[in-house]
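Hey,
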Amino acid sequence: MKRTFWSATAVVVALSVVPAVAQAQFTFTFDEWGNGFFTLPDGSQYNVKGYLAADPTGGIAGPVLIYDMPELLVPGDIAFTEPPSNDYSDAFRFFNDAVTAHLIFYSDQDPIDAPADTGLPVNLNPVFVLPEVGREGYNWCIYDTGLGFRYEGLSDGVLPEPTSMAALGLGILALARRRKAAR
C-alpha cells in the first residue's frame, strides 16, 4: 500500500513538472547595445532592454551590460573566441542574486564602444569555450544548453527589434501587393 502511494505520488509530481518545464523554454537574442528579445515556443516574442550597472560579480571595475532573466540560471561563464584566434573575445556570465537572475554580456574593447565593450572580466572561468559564428562586423555568440534554452548574443552589430522587422515585412508585402494591383 505504501509503495503504491509513493509510486502514484511520483507520477503526479512528474506529470505536473513536465508541462512547467516545457513552458519555461525560450531563445534569448540580444546584442552589445542593450537590445534583446525572448522568443517562446509558441512563437510569441517580447522585448527586453539591457542596462549598465556596477558588475555584481566583481569581474570589471566599471559598469557592465546586464540583462535580467525570467528565471534562475545555472551560474557560470561561457567564453567565445573569434576564429582563427583562440583568444577570448566575448563572454556570457550567468549570475543569480537574492532576487533575480542575470546575464552579463562582456566583450573585448574595440573602437565601436558599445555598452558591452568593457573588456573581459579578470575572474573569467569558462565552463565552455565556443567559437563565434558569422562574418566580421556581425558575429554571433551562440550558446545552446541542449535543454530548450538558447542564448544568441550579437557581437559587433545592432540587433533590429522584432517589431521593427515585422513592420518592415508588412511594408514590403503591402508594396508588393500595390505593384501587383497596378499591373
